[in-house]
TrEMBL record:
Gene3D superfamilies named in the record: 3.30.420.40
Reaction equation(s) it catalyzes: glycerol + ATP = sn-glycerol 3-phosphate + ADP + H(+)
Organism: Homoserinimonas hongtaonis
Protein name: Glycerol kinase
InterPro entries the UniProt entry points to: ATPase_NBD, Carb_kinase_FGGY, Carb_kinase_FGGY_CS, FGGY_C, FGGY_N, Glycerol_kin
Length: 512
């Protein structure tokens, strides 16, 4: 890892967390405690069923604003900041003109399913596992490559501009880094290995873009960012930024950042993040492990020139966003926290099971033909039961991917470390412990995603010395022990599996 001498007053790390629903800037001190934060939500643009977009210019404007908010709240300046780390929604694709700095289209979000026809076309030669040996990933609308291909195929003039070398691609970390380091006036066009590993274009073994896969997707290599480690100095904030001259020194995709923030640095250690979706990551060490149970092989982190660490991941598309759906689409709650009190208004789910396959089913099923289903309804079921069924669906889906991870690694977790916004919901975490039959543990510092990005930047600049120092900072905040009888756990899970089967084979050629 690289290091730079800092001014004596540089006592903090700033992390930029560019997420699916909002952008945040968080400032951490040497103890890993949050000093201040700024946050701004951005619009969720839904042009038609299955399409999910964001405005990249709105995101960049919000990032600039939240940096100012975090500094102002803490009464700090750039001189107080040792380094900046970036974490982000990983598979979301942005394509922009390097000469103007303007996107050619909205960001296509990881949840978007419009590219299924591209997947079907590519799968005709080799099936959904066509590139899995190299990339660790099945062909899926989830990943960035098909989104780039869609933009090149559907945005007027994009193909020609890309082939002329005028267009750049990046996931949101790359977009933020490029703009923060100068944009069209010399911005750094780079990403880290964790984000690159989610594009469907990176060889997990060589850590290089695969020319044969680029050719299959018809994506010019000149569009792609340079692949770097997760902890090194990529560049410095430009003169137009409040952070000017501050090194940008850490990048991790959001789920890898949360794993890093949970200090799950070694093989066998795991965490589960409860956000817009849920993401279970199990560290598998310095060799990639091929899943045979529907999980993804991905990169956990790479610190400078040290060995790459790999992981298995269970990606669930819809968990926290289901609560937003209850609020925004059905109106049965006024705010996300109200879902817990509504769920507690009833004793159980009343026989109702909610499978939120709004974007198909991700791990461990990988069924794009699935669609959401609320089953087991009787006249007895009310909105309290629906709220409880929604919360319980998060726990059931987590059990599915945890069972798959156990089968792949032949190792049994004795407890599950959790983080993310939904872990403030005690009812959810108690049910999670019950349906898993193991304790669920939340750390004392809950902002593990931003913290992980801060850790990476701090390691690269000597703010923290090594992984052992970071391990010593992890502290248990609260623990939920299972209380459910095994036979009841089995009954509920059996009914959940029946509900999942009802969602399958819904999408035909004339139904999307």
């Amino acid at each position: 890892m690289s290091s730079e001498a800092q001014t004596p007053e540089a006592r903090y790390i700033l992390a930029i967390d560019q997420g699916t629903t909002s952008s945040r800037a968080m400032i951490f001190d040497h103890s890993g405690d949050v000093v201040s934060a700024g946050q701004r939500e951005h619009r969720q643009i839904l042009p038609r069923a299955g399409w999910v977009e964001h405005d990249p210019m709105e995101i960049w404007g919000n990032v600039r604003e939240v940096i100012g908010l975090a500094l102002a709240k803490a009464d700090l300046t750039r001189h107080d900041i040792c380094a900046v780390g970036i974490t982000n929604q990983r598979e979301t694709a942005i394509v922009w003109d390097k000469n103007t700095g303007k996107p050619v289209y909205n960001a296509i979000v990881w949840q978007d399913t419009r590219t299924q026809s591209i997947i079907d076309r590519l799968a005709e030669d080799g099936g959904l596992d066509r590139f899995i040996e190299a990339t660790g990933l099945p062909l899926s609308t989830y990943f960035s490559a098909t989104k780039i291909a869609w933009i090149l195929e559907n945005v007027e003039g994009a193909r020609e501009r890309a082939e002329n070398g005028d267009l750049l691609f990046g996931t949101p970390d790359t977009w933020v880094l490029w703009n923060l380091t100068g944009g069209r006036r010399g911005g750094v066009h780079a990403t880290d290995v964790t984000n690159a590993s989610r594009t469907l274009l990176l060889d997990l073994h060589t850590l290089q873009w695969r020319d044969d896969i680029l050719e299959a997707f018809d994506i010019p290599r000149t569009m792609l960012p340079e692949v770097r480690s997760s902890a090194e100095i990529y560049g410095h904030a430009s003169s137009s930024s409040l952070l000017r001259e501050t090194p940008i020194a850490g990048i991790l995709g959001d789920q890898q950042a949360a794993t890093f923030g949970q200090a799950a640095f070694s093989a066998g250690e795991a965490k589960n993040t409860y956000g817009t979706g849920n993401f279970l990551i199990v560290n598998t060490g310095t060799e990639p492990v091929r899943s045979t149970h529907g999980l993804l092989t991905t990169i956990a982190y790479k610190l400078g020139d040290a060995e790459t660490h790999y992981a298995l991941e269970g990606s669930i598309a819809v968990t926290g966003s289901l609560v937003q759906w209850l609020r925004d689409n059905l109106g049965i709650i006024g705010s996300a926290p109200e879902v817990e009190s509504l769920a507690l208004s009833v004793d159980d789910n009343g026989g109702a099971y909610f499978v939120p396959a709004f974007s198909g089913l991700f791990a461990p099923h990988w069924r794009p033909d699935a669609r959401g289903a609320l089953v087991g309804l009787t006249r007895f079921v009310n909105k309290g039961h629906i709220a409880r069924a929604a919360l319980e669906s998060i726990a059931y889906q987590t059990r599915e991917v945890l069972d798959a991870a156990t089968a792949d690694t032949e190792a049994t977790l004795t407890e599950l470390k959790v983080d993310g916004g939904a872990t403030e919901n005690s009812t959810l975490l108690q049910f999670q412990a019950d349906i898993l039959g193991i304790p669920v543990v939340r750390p004392n510092i809950g902002e593990t995603t931003a913290l992980g990005a801060a850790y990476a930047a701090g390691l690269a600049t000597g703010f923290w010395s090594d992984l052992d120092e970071l391990r010593s900072k992890w502290q248990e905040g609260r623990r939920w022990e299972p209380t459910m009888a095994p036979e009841e756990r089995d009954r509920l899970n059996r009914n959940w599996n029946k509900a999942v089967k009802r969602t399958l084979d819904w999408v035909d050629d004339d139904v999307r």
